[in-house]
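QA checklist item 7 of 12: single-chain prediction sanity check.
[x] sequence parsed
[x] length recorded as 523
[x] structure emitted
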Amino acid sequence: MTTGELKVSVVVPTYNSGEHLQQLIDSLLGQSMPATDFEVVFVDDGSTDDTPARLAELAAAHPHVTVLRCEHSGWPSRPRNLGLDRARGEYVQFVDDDDWLADEALARLHGYAVANGADIAIGKMTGHGRSVPRELFRVNRPDARLDDSPLMESLTCHKMFRRAFLLAHDLRFPEEPRKRLEDHHLVARAYLLSRRTSVLSDYTCYHHARRPDGGNLTATRMEPSGYYDSLREVLDIVDAHTEPGPLRDTMHRRWLRSEMVRRLRGTGLGNAPRDWVDQVAAEVQKIIQERFAPEVAGGLRSVERTVAGLAAQGRVEDLVRLAEWDAGVRARTRLKAYELTGLTLTLLLNSQLRNADEPVAFTHADGRDRLVVPVDDVPDEWLDCTDDLGAARLDVIAQHATTHDEFFLPVHHEVDRVPGTAGEFQVRYRGAASVDFGALNEGRTRGEWILKARVAGFGWTIDAKLPLEITCAADGARPVVVDKRKKKTPAAPPAPRPGLWRRLTGSARDRLGLARPQAVPLS
């Protein structure tokens, strides 16, 4: 950073934001980074409500806030580019008008970026009615690479970029009217050009929200033809910077999974108009056939690979049938036992993938495992889940009920085959986890907490809420745990069943670093 240069420029596009802007404003004014070290550049895209007046009042009261106005473009790309042109900071953080930042977000993320010499720094995100790339934020990643981390799961622009890096490579958002996937155009190229990309996962920096009125700037229905034309342009960017091979396949696989297969699965497909389904299926079929190497779909999990295969063959009726079944898949999770020792809560649980009243079924033949689906004439190689079984996992997540911050807990899990009927088998997940409320979220534990089991495997990632109400009266305080199945706080925690506790001893206990809990009242 040169003498006199600001540390961060925060660029925010706005359009008819109104009162929804207030939470972001409050978060910007409440940053731990001194106001002399950063600036906020609002760029209003021709709002017709009171947003310009709100912003003018804000800028008049705070010297580090600047407001620009432009003619209505209908999309955030041009406002972001104008904000970038005006920015003076060493780093630029893009934020949307209905999102907000945690109190220490700018200070922590800038410090992390500087310490690691990063061209791109990504702060942990939490979603409020929106999905966020959870797996990316499992651990800190000072030097995350496309070939060894799930970077491709995060393609929104809500990141901190070194401004000199953006300018050196002329990294800008496409300004064509209502251009879909505009973030992907910039971020994919930025990843490929970045000398170092760092991911900060131990502090939630960015809160990504969906407005209750659905009024986000890009919250309009996807038009298949234009959407997938824009996706082809993103693939062109990847192909221009990579050679055929594993890296290109990994990047292509992200769009196949998230922008194609996901749209042809579950309730999203079942609730969509049939003409729209036909259009999406046709576009996906063309891209798979024209742009992707066989290894791209081959690297998907079994249920995803089956959807991609049906789409590539234009089997829309089978896609609809599979989606109806897929929409019913749930994770039935049972809390088998729990104990509280001091500030540490220990959990034993198991889970199973089920569809309605039946477990999801698998078969084993010729040394390979295969998923059973209600669609005929599905090739074995699509349903082969031998590798998926080994990669299946059970996580336990602690989520703050108010902020929605999520934290992966230390967990030991096992995934077993359970014999079924007619030569089939089912899959059972078993796990043991612990949460130390003295250390969780750096000791900031005041409030209510939710525990969730996250069951992943075969192309599904499903959360199941555990039946415990947990409240900490103050930061680092001993939690009060209420078993919702009993509707009251027990006088003493239930002792784990001997069989379950034996499974927790040995390597499992060593992995968790746990001593056997003693019975301590929860009240």
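[x] summary fact logged: The first helix runs from residue 22 to 29.
[ ] second reviewer sign-off
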